[in-house]
Write a structure and sequence with these properties.
The complex is a heterodimer of chains A (116) and B (234). Chain A has 116 residues and is mostly helical. Chain A contains four helices and one strand, in the order H-H-H-H-E. In chain B, helix 6 runs parallel beside helix 10. Classes of the chains: A mainly alpha (116), B alpha/beta (234).
Chain lengths: 116, 234
């Protein structure tokens, strides 16, 4: 085994363990993580296998295939995170709005406004 | 323009979103109060609370605990006004670029039942148009196109913050775009709710202060980005 293979497998293992900890309550995500780990190790050990898969799909080289997949995964996770941020922002807005309306005051009398 | 016959000015709630505005906020509020309008200031998490400048003035003061954006502030103020029993709700900029004396002409079409929402435009009268700096005109016209693209509504002016709603219309519109994209979103919501709207001429007073607070080209690109993402994902 070349040392780069050892390092790569170690990194994959770390990523999988980290992912498993983050998604502690999501079995499907953990299983997906395990599957990805297995696939990654297989491709690290048999680098030429990526090329044959790539050829099957009509992509020239295995590395190209990985770049495409990586790009796709990156865009997907960006959109996922963005939509989550929007949801969070929306719920935060609702809460701050409720507080603002509840605590509304008239500045001349200092009286609180009871909204009907 | 004379004050409208049977209208009680107090039933007109003017919502002013304010974020880090200086003493100009008090000037704007005082001017509006002179006409007898109900003034709702929504402090959008300013560093120095707006109470600093508004001490003792008979305005409703609401505060977001943190900065959410102009769209969010307008929605908060509008919702509050409706709950207070407002008959008309007017959106008004804090920086003094809108003229209180134009409010009656903004409300008039709603009062007569001609429509539910009225939007001010800088491009209906040649004299108003001349007030707008050239680069701003180009930007705004591009905005008209983008707005049409996203909301299907063609107006002569976009991102004009001077608008009026009937209480019913205001309660049927709920903005969720916190940033400046709300100006386009509002039109989309008006259209979807089947509300009738029209534009009326509105003179904008461009001061150095309001210019410094205006939209930059970079910010406009941001708005378009927000709008695209809004369409892509709910």
């Amino acid at each position: 085994m070349k040392s780069i293979q050892f390092i790569l497998i170690l990194l994959c293992l770390l990523a999988t363990v980290a992912g498993g900890l983050v998604f502690r309550f999501k079995l499907s995500y953990r299983l997906l993580g395990l599957f990805l780990f297995a696939a990654a190790v297989a491709f690290v050990l048999f680098p030429n296998a990526t090329s044959s898969v790539a050829n099957m799909l009509g992509v020239g080289r295995g590395t190209d295939l990985l770049v495409y997949l990586g790009l796709f995964a990156g865009v997907y996770s960006f959109l996922l995170l963005y939509s989550r941020t929007r949801r969070l922002e929306r719920s935060m807005t609702e809460q701050l709005r409720a507080i603002a309306i509840r605590d509304a005051i008239r500045l001349d009398t200092g009286s609180a406004q009871r909204s009907s | 323009m004379q004050l409208i016959g049977t209208l009680t000015p107090g039933s007109v709630f003017v919502v002013i979103p304010a974020y880090n505005e200086g003493p100009v906020l008090a000037e704007t509020a005082t001017e509006l109060l002179k006409y007898g309008y109900s003034v709702v200031v929504v402090d959008d998490g300013s560093r120095v609370p707006g109470t600093q400048y508004l001490k003792g003035s008979p305005v409703y003061y609401l505060r977001h605990l943190t900065n959410l954006g102009q769209g969010a502030a307008l929605q908060t103020g509008t919702e509050f006004a409706v709950r207070q029993g407002a008959q008309f709700i007017v959106h008004f900029d804090a920086d003094g670029q809108h003229s209180p004396e134009l409010i009656p002409s903004l409300i008039e079409p709603i009062r007569t039942g001609e429509c539910d929402v009225v939007i001010g435009s800088r491009f209906l009268k040649a004299s108003d148009r001349k007030q707008v700096p050239l680069e701003k005109q180009i930007l705004l016209k591009a905005g008209v196109f983008v707005t049409w693209l996203f909301s299907g509504v063609w107006l002569s002016d976009t991102h004009n913050g001077f608008r009026a709603f009937s209480a019913d219309a205001a309660s049927r519109i709920r903005m969720t775009e916190n940033g400046f994209a709300h100006a386009t979103e509002i039109l989309e919501l008006i259209k979807r709710a089947g509300l009738r709207f029209k534009e009326v001429p509105a003179t904008i007073r461009y001061t150095d202060y309001s210019r410094s607070k205006g939209q930059s080209v970079l910010n406009s690109i941001n708005i378009v980005f927000d709008l695209v993402l809004r369409k892509v994902m709910r």
